[in-house]
Write a structure and sequence with these properties.
This protein is α/β, with parallel strands linked by helices. The protein is 37% helix and 16% strand. Helix 9 runs antiparallel to helix 10. The protein is globular, with a radius of gyration of 24 Å.
């Protein structure tokens, strides 16, 4: 709850599952003051531009102007989140309202995961939100979001939620969708923005909104990366310098596959342009090379193979697994974004190449979109 140098598209991963942040100066928070009705008024930053609200009542009391855009985060904001907030401001317009939620959701952390050590940097988060033009930061407590303790009724992610991240982190997506559903009800946005770095999460949120008729537009924002290609994540702060360098293998693997796919598409286009295949085949046949002629036809006609493209990325990860420190892959998958099941041979259209790996004690994810041939 996010591509400069090598990548082609910039992105953000500011969603309930996405953790990290670069250091930013903290912004002192004013204490709340009682209102005439007895409820606490939302405190504001020293400039008075970005309100800090802690309760559902305070959030409901915010004067709503124009279109409301919401960015859901678990805090520890970084440039990926900043990109989401800037995009939200563009979508809301100057007359609209941008709300950033900051909530570390315990339901989506499994046993042995990093709930306790997950960074809590609210003052810095609020300063970033203000800098990027947010009107309010909604930072509720666990008791505020789950007043009766862990909810007995939850949203179930269904079959897609059991694949990839769901298989590695059982129950994770159920917890994520449950809190997203609650926050959508509480914030009542016209549009909500999430980072494409958490591609499976984004797909599940879109599915929930469609299946359960939430009256909100869901917008995915491309992944934002460091200059060396590493996807921004709040968990990057856990990496030692050596681990940080090793972690680049994730993006290198993805980019190697992307570049191979582009090369195969270019070769296929050149081979089939203007009858080049027939001409080469005829010339080979004329000199008795019928087998070579058949091979020329087959190579030119063949579409890029999902398995072959995935193998290119796997090769990079295999090398990284032998390095020090090693990159221990959890999964590498080339999937149909509609189902998150593996793209079969002969697949045409949009696909997602996704990877998850552990470097030291830190688990990282990344992905890139790929297009195979022309969608039917």
């Amino acid at each position: 709850m996010t591509t400069p140098t090598t990548p082609t598209s910039p992105t953000a991963s500011a969603t309930p599952t996405s953790p990290t942040a670069s250091a930013t100066p903290t912004s002192p928070t004013a204490s709340t003051t009682p209102t005439a009705s007895g409820a606490s008024a939302a405190s504001t930053t020293p400039t008075g531009r970005t309100a800090l609200v802690r309760t559902a009542a305070q959030l409901a009391a915010l004067e709503r102007t124009g279109r409301r855009a919401v960015v859901m985060t678990m805090g520890a904001l970084h440039e990926g989140h900043a990109t989401l907030i800037r995009t939200a401001r563009t979508l809301a317009g100057t007359a609209g309202q941008v709300v950033v939620t900051v909530f570390v959701n315990p339901l989506q952390f499994g046993a042995g995961e990093d709930l306790d050590r997950y960074p809590r940097t609210l003052d810095a988060d609020r300063a970033i939100a203000e800098r990027e033009g947010a009107d309010a930061v909604f930072a509720p407590s666990v008791d505020e979001v789950y007043p009766g303790g862990e909810p007995q009724v939850r949203v179930t992610a269904g079959p897609m939620g059991e694949l990839l991240e769901g298989a590695s982190r059982p129950g994770h997506f159920d917890g994520m969708l449950t809190v997203v559903a609650k926050l959508l009800h509480l914030t009542a946005p016209d549009v909500a923005l999430y980072g494409q770095k958490d591609a499976q999460q984004l797909a599940l949120i879109r599915r929930m909104v469609r299946d359960l008729n939430f009256p909100v537009e869901i917008v995915g924002v491309p992944t934002v990366r460091e200059d060396d290609g590493l996807a921004l994540s709040s968990r990057n702060r856990y990496l030692s310098p050596a681990e940080r360098s090793a972690a680049r293998a994730l993006s290198r693997a993805l980019f190697a596959a992307r570049d191979r796919l582009a090369a195969e598409h270019a070769l296929h286009a050149r081979a089939t342009a203007g009858g080049a295949v027939s001409g080469r085949a005829d010339a080979l046949t004329a000199i008795g090379e019928a087998r070579a002629a058949a091979d020329a036809h087959a190579v030119a006609a063949a579409a890029p193979s999902p398995a072959a493209i995935k193998a290119v990325a796997q090769g990079v990860l295999d090398d990284a697994a032998k390095a020090e420190p090693p990159v221990v892959a959890d999964y590498l998958a080339l999937v149909d974004p509609a189902t998150f099941r593996e793209a079969p041979e002969g697949f045409a259209g949009e696909a997602i190449l996704a990877v998850a790996a552990r470097v030291g004690t830190t688990r990282l994810i990344d992905n890139i979109p790929l297009t195979f041939g022309a969608p039917e």
